[in-house]
Every structure is written in structure tokens, then in C-alpha cells.
Design brief:
This protein has twelve helices and two strands; from the N terminus they run ααββαααααααααα. It is mainly alpha-helical.
């Protein structure tokens, strides 16, 4: 009996150590402190690329540089941009085949200027990189399930002692309870942390930014509260309808000829099939993903149409795991694509 208890400790202690290490990395305070640089970083933490796009469109609309008419047609009144994200909106609108709000909003989400915001936040520890987020969730779920099964086995093994049969001794389950309790607690915490891209430091940075803002203009209200906070009912309805209903066209299927030349076709075609990265990088709200809704690391919340799971597309830009520590996949591509 003592030998089996020793094996329990020998087996579960390393798992507990790995889980605790992952939790410490997730919850650590960034070396540069917990602070966001502007409202777009706050919007990204609150609602991902979609919230950033909504903030920029609202800012352009609020001071008359952009007009959104029915049914969702965008017109530039003054082509003036005050920051890279506003410039991205004007660029995408000038090169678009249509002036519809849906394609514009989606194109802004996957623009390098927006995707790079996620890279910067991840580098500063305010948001989890997709790989770390997924790893924490998988480890937590796997170890938690295995630990639960081991606990049931320990209870069954302890039944004779618990009901009074056999010699009186400490029940086996009590001998292994410390290591099982520590491991199971760490597994549950890791699984929960894996479903939340925004770290505790990121949430603290958002709260600090909100407290520092004395004047709440429409764009700032969208940054902090999402579309429900937008005071203009017409623009709010237009953006909300677009977030719910717009679905970009799926990437074209490669022809058989492309399969004979993988070196020339993989950089653009395969990138569109990769899983979503920063398009699902939000804590919640209406715009976490490239499809326009709330999102998190969990597939249940970020894969809905509004929560925007999409695929990487765009062959120029950033945010995809290059050697410099950005987080998606594709050596130089932006990280969105088709909404699911």
C-alpha cells in the first residue's frame, strides 16, 4: 500500500510542478509594468481586433471624417488619419471593391496595424500568445481528467479501510490526498486560465486606463464598453448588424495544378487555412474575433460567428510567429482570414 502511495507522489508531483510553472508564467507581472499605451491597446484587450476596428471607425465618424449611411455604405468626407489604425481604415476603404461596412470592418481587423497591437501586448505579458493559451488549456484538461480518475481509483482502493474491514490503518486515499489535491487544483486553475487570453496584468492595465480617462468621447466609450456604449444609435445599429451578419467569403480552393508546386502556392493559400490567432484574442465583448463577436481561447466562445474564429490570410503584415516572438503562424503574414 505504501509503495502504491509512493508511486502516486512520484507520478503526480512532476505534473503539479509543470502546471504551477505555467500558472506562474501566465500570472507574472510584466517587467515593464502594467500599462497600455493608447485606447487601441485597451480595445484589443477588451474585444480583440473587432473592438479596435469599431473604435477607429467610430473615431472617424464622430468628427465627420467618415460617414456611414444605410444600408451600411461608408463614405470618406475628409481623408485625414491621426494614427496607424485610422490610416488602416482609410487605406482599406480606398482599395476596396465596395464601400460596404462589413468588408471594411473585416479588412481592418486583419490589417497589420491592428494585428501588431496583439504582438506588442503579448510581448509585454498583457495577453497570452495563442500557443501558451492553448497549451495551458490542454495541460489543465488532460491532467485534471487523469487526476480525477486516479482519485476514484484511490477511493475504491480505500473502501475496505473506510467501511471497517481489515486491519485498522490510515485509508489509502488520505495518504495520497495531498498530491492529488494540489495537482487537481493546479489543473483546474490552468484550464480556466487557458480559456482567457487576457492575463491578470492585462486586466489591471485596462482598469487603470479606464480610471485615467476624464472625458469619454464616442470612440473611448466603444473602447471600454463595446458597441452598447456607442451613443450614436444609427452607427451603433449599423456596426452591430454588420458584426452579427457579415461573413467573408471563404478562401478559394486550390486547383490540382497547385499541388504540383507547393513551394509557390503554400505561402498564400495555406496561410488562409491556418487557425485564428489574434482574431480571437479577446476577453469578451462583441468583437473578439474576425467575425465580430466575443471571444476567448476556448473554442466554445471564440468559434461562434460573432466570436470570430477565422483563418490566417493576408501575405504581408505582422503578428504571426516570426522569429522575433510574435505569435501566430506564417512568417510574415497578418493573422486573420475567414470567419467561421
Amino acid at each position: 500500500m505504501n509503495t502504491i502511495a509512493f508511486l502516486y507522489y512520484l507520478f503526480f508531483t512532476p505534473f503539479a510542478a509543470v502546471l504551477v510553472a505555467k500558472l506562474r508564467r501566465i500570472r507574472r507581472t510584466p517587467p515593464g509594468g502594467v500599462a497600455v499605451h493608447d485606447r487601441y491597446e485597451t480595445a484589443f484587450l477588451n474585444g480583440g481586433p473587432a473592438r479596435v476596428a469599431d473604435t477607429a471607425i467610430t473615431a472617424l465618424h464622430a468628427d465627420g471624417r467618415l460617414m456611414v449611411g444605410g444600408p451600411g455604405i461608408v463614405q470618406v468626407l475628409r481623408p485625414t488619419a491621426y494614427d496607424p489604425v485610422e490610416r488602416a481604415v482609410l487605406q482599406e476603404l480606398s482599395s476596396a471593391l465596395t464601400a460596404a461596412l462589413g468588408p471594411l470592418r473585416f479588412a481592418v481587423m486583419r490589417h497589420p496595424a491592428v494585428q501588431e497591437i496583439g504582438d506588442g501586448l503579448a510581448a509585454r505579458g498583457l495577453i497570452l500568445q495563442p500557443r501558451a493559451c492553448r497549451s495551458a488549456g490542454v495541460w489543465g484538461a488532460f491532467v485534471g481528467m487523469f487526476c480525477g480518475m486516479a482519485t476514484l481509483f484511490a477511493l475504491m482502493f480505500s473502501l475496505p479501510d473506510l467501511v471497517g474491514f481489515g486491519p485498522r490503518q490510515v485509508p489509502f486515499v488520505l495518504k495520497v490526498l495531498p498530491v492529488l489535491a494540489v495537482t487537481l487544483t493546479a489543473a483546474v486553475m490552468c484550464a480556466v486560465a487557458g480559456k482567457r487570453r487576457v492575463t491578470p496584468a492585462g486586466r489591471a492595465a485596462v482598469d487603470a486606463f479606464a480610471r485615467s480617462q476624464a472625458v469619454a468621447d464616442p470612440a473611448l466609450l466603444v473602447t471600454l464598453q463595446g458597441l452598447p456604449g456607442l451613443p450614436d444609435p444609427v452607427l451603433r445599429d449599423q456596426l452591430a448588424t454588420t458584426a452579427r451578419s457579415y461573413r467573408p467569403a471563404p478562401p478559394p480552393r486550390r486547383s490540382a495544378a497547385h499541388h504540383h508546386h507547393p513551394s509557390t502556392s503554400s505561402s498564400s493559400s495555406d496561410a488562409a487555412l491556418l487557425p485564428v490567432m489574434w482574431c480571437a484574442a479577446a476577453a469578451g465583448g462583441e468583437g473578439g474575433g474576425c467575425g465580430g463577436g466575443g471571444s476567448s481561447c476556448s473554442s466554445g466562445s471564440s468559434c461562434s460567428g460573432g466570436g470570430g474564429v477565422s483563418g490566417c490570410s493576408s501575405s504581408s503584415g505582422s503578428s504571426c510567429s516570426s522569429s522575433s516572438g510574435s505569435s501566430c503562424s506564417s512568417s510574415s503574414g497578418s493573422s486573420c482570414g475567414s470567419s467561421s
